[in-house]
Design brief:
The chain is an alpha+beta fold. Strands 1-2 form a two-stranded antiparallel sheet. It has 6 helices and 2 strands. It has one domain: rbstp2171, CATH 3.30.2220.
């Protein structure tokens, strides 16, 4: 019988890779990739955030987790001020929302069915 920890890691582990395409005028500007957010990463991002503001957390999440196709970080911590002042908020929010919602499309019923097998 497979242990629950193995089922969780195999079904919801950090080896998964999500993708979001940033599109303007019907053309893909670039793609953002990321691995699922873990509790440890969430705590680390919360510590880096200077306030309890959800916008601050979402921006720090994007800066920390966003990768290119090769697996290199797209943003550095020093990009934060520039992103805040020089990029349309709705574009950043689109990326952040994709990252926050990633993995939520899987229904609980599917996970329960896998536990039975």
């Amino acid at each position: 019988m497979t242990r629950a920890i193995e089922l969780l890691k195999n079904s919801f582990g950090v080896n998964q890779l999500y993708q979001h395409d940033v599109i303007k005028d019907g053309n893909i500007i670039f793609s953002v990739y990321w691995h699922p957010l873990t509790i440890a990463e969430r705590e680390s991002i919360q510590k880096k955030s200077v306030s309890e503001d959800t916008n601050e957390f979402a921006l720090q999440l994007m800066i920390t987790k966003a990768l290119d196709k090769k697996g290199d970080r797209l943003f550095q911590d020093g990009d934060k001020a520039s992103l805040r002042r020089e990029v349309e908020a709705n574009v950043l929010q689109e990326i952040q929302l994709a990252m926050i919602e990633a993995g939520q499309t899987r229904e609980v019923k599917e996970a329960k069915a896998e536990l039975k097998s």
